[in-house]
Amino acid sequence: IMMMLLEGCFGGPRWPKAADIQDDKTAFAERPHYEPPGLEASPLRRENWHHDGRTLDVSYLAPRPEGHYPLILYFPGLGEDAAAGELWRSAWVAAGYAVLTLQATPDRDATRHLNVDDRQDLRMIAHPRFTREASRQRLLDVHYVLQECQRLSHQGDVDFKKADDQRLIVAGYDLGAQTAALLAGEQHQGAQEKVEMAPVMAAILLSPHVDLAAGGLESRYDKINTPLLIVTGTEDHDPYGMSSPSLRTAIFKQSPPGQKYLLMLDYGLHRQL
Hints:
Blueprint: H1 2-10, H2 18-29, E1 45-51, E2 54-61, E3 69-75, H3 86-94, E4 98-104, H4 105-109, H5 119-126, H6 132-154, E5 163-173, H7 175-184, E6 200-206, E7 228-235, H8 245-248, H9 250-254, E8 260-269
Parallel strand pairs: 3-4, 3-5, 5-6, 6-7, 7-8
Antiparallel strand pairs: 1-2, 2-4
């Protein structure tokens, strides 16, 4: 018996069979992206909400199980609707967040009649959308949407009761990243509109827009003191010709040190984000 035990102790490791390794590699390669196990989502709600003469395209997604989940406000890019960013939103819901997406219909429909080659027309359409007055209007929209979420929750809406607007995260892409940055603390003279909301717990800026003409670049981001993730790419040129990959890192460089992260994707394009 002792000899048998010793043989077992000194035996080499048992390597998996070649066929098993190949099966695992094949199964992994067939997955389109990393899919961690997570919470199942409830059905997507897609509605039009009306505020101050404006129509807001709104979508809402939350985990199916009962609970009180931190709320992510997601703002799409120019020309995108409230169903955009499906990959981001699904991942956040699986991780235990409720996600509310909003886009004013003028911003949603602004570029629908154009293609990416109409660069001159795109610039003419996009430029006024990034102005201080346009940003101020979007902040008013956020104020209204948060109030509407609270109203629905207090009325017993089973979906919106899951959203914890006291644990708030903001995220946005392109034009939406501008809104998210303002809510996170960016100081943009003329665009500031007080939004009654809980302090932002974190911000995610995908291909953020940086306006050099607004001035004050050295101090504009001084009050962003929330955990911050900025995602851009070395080829992140927008089709409007208004920003560049080097400008998009300014928020990371100029905001206070702390829990901030910059993800720079080699050869990453604006449209990929």
